[in-house]
Amino acid sequence: MGKWLWLAAASAIVSGCGGAPLARPAPALDPVAARAPAHDQLIRGGTIYDGSGGAPFVGDVAIDGDRIVYAGPARDATAARVVDARGLAVSPGFINMLSWATESLLVDPRGQSDLRQGVTLEVLGEGWSMGPLTEDMKARAIKQQGDVKFPIEWTTLGDYLNYVERKGSALNIASFVGATTVRQHVLGEGDVDPNPAQLERMRGLVRQAMEEGAMGVGSSLIYPPASFAETDELVALVSEAGKCGGMYISHMRSEGDRLLESIDELIEISRRSGAPAEIYHLKQIGRANWGKLDEVIAKVEAARAAGLRISADMYTYTAGGTGVAASMPPGVEDGGNDAMLERLKDPATVARVKREMVKPGKDWENLYLHAGPDGIRLASLAEPSLKPLIGLTIAEVARRRGVSPEQAVIDITLADQGRAGAIYFVMSEDNVRRQTAIPWVSFGSDAEAAAPEGVFLKSSTHPRAYGNFARFLGKYVRDEKTVPLADAIRRLTALPAANLGLRDRGKLSPGMVADVVLFDPATIADHATFEQPMRYATGVRDVFINGIQVLSKGEPTGATPGRFVKGSGWTGWPGGGACRAGNSRP
Known about the structure:
The chain is α/β, with parallel strands linked by helices. It is built from 21 helices and 21 strands.
């Protein structure tokens, strides 16, 4: 657009979402600084939200190579390429703290459902991670693949992340090492405790993953075999990550009847290990538990006040999504998927399972009871003959087949070989709204990064895959005014970056990697629904990742500059990383 005078740039000041105060005037220009050298790219005239949570200002962002070299008031600079950002918010790239793009990026590197919302970093590893794997684990993973199929050409977690980078990805990727994966690697699928030698091997696997660049340890304690792990085992693994500057992040044992006790466990693990800890997808499952949010907030804030680094993330919907098998007590899965399928062929076992499904879970999260058969909607089925059932509730399937809803769960699990996925309606909209305003909560989709085409059309999905971040900025920030836009952007960028210990992402400032998003605060919106979940969000115009434009005028460019973003323990950092430096984030 050529050179713009400061008065012209100032006239383009836009307000924050939902009637937020006008942007503050930028500081006066330094005449010497105005004679700036040429840059590779200049994003000019946008309203800059630098990620700090401070008031925005109209100005420019200059990029040389993959780095931001200037972010401040408009100045008389030249660049090989100038991007007109007038009328748009300019912010750091958004961080998806809970991504399941593990498989989707292997078959479609564009990651469009997230990219079109401004996501630039996918953080993987909720309990299960893509390494370390044994040959037996690889064989079982291939056997259990659903619609998305791919060869497993890696062994360690670092191998996988490097593989994705080499193969090409529009989005950056990072990962926790899964506590479940480490347990399977050493102990298999059974309900057993590690002996000292086995626990030492598990700790060694965590340390190896940390030195390869993992962010810490991720757990998913509601699901077998992770549910078999006791607190001491988790403390041992997380302690190893903590020595390397990593954190602990957990889908806790309960988000419903034992929610408060589960938060106590997460806080205890953080305290004993010395590592920061985060609650995955903070929620209160089941109507009887919706009133617990105040106590949840109080527990976390008390721990933070005591010096512990406790945080949480969330998605902006009232339904979760997981396997149909999660409707049954976890003992069914003792020994793994094949053992479960064999067990469910036994009439006595089936009778016992059905009885337990309709009673409150004494030591397990009874999602079936919390949602009810009318609140469980089938979303993904790998067996072709079952595809017509996608979109139906368990209650509807049961009526069609003339069986009880509990039997329908068992029948579908058997017919789809344990791969069936469903959406569970279990949360309160009032609580979701309140959580969007909590300052220590960031955001994660808990979903793949996909597209409404190709292999992804073979099953349905949760609308969070296509709308989580845009829904936060549009529905909650702009329309319902739960939080100012500047702080909302902080919680999508600098907050998760700091929690992860990222040294050079999450803010627009000189020296930071150029992950940059341009969006319209007045129009950004989600369009995905539970009935039509594969609908792209709108309002994000341009996205730059590592200095390369990957979204232009709302469409992917085809560029794949995404990188494996490494944690503090990576041995490639100067000085050999935090594992060798002794529990310090470099």
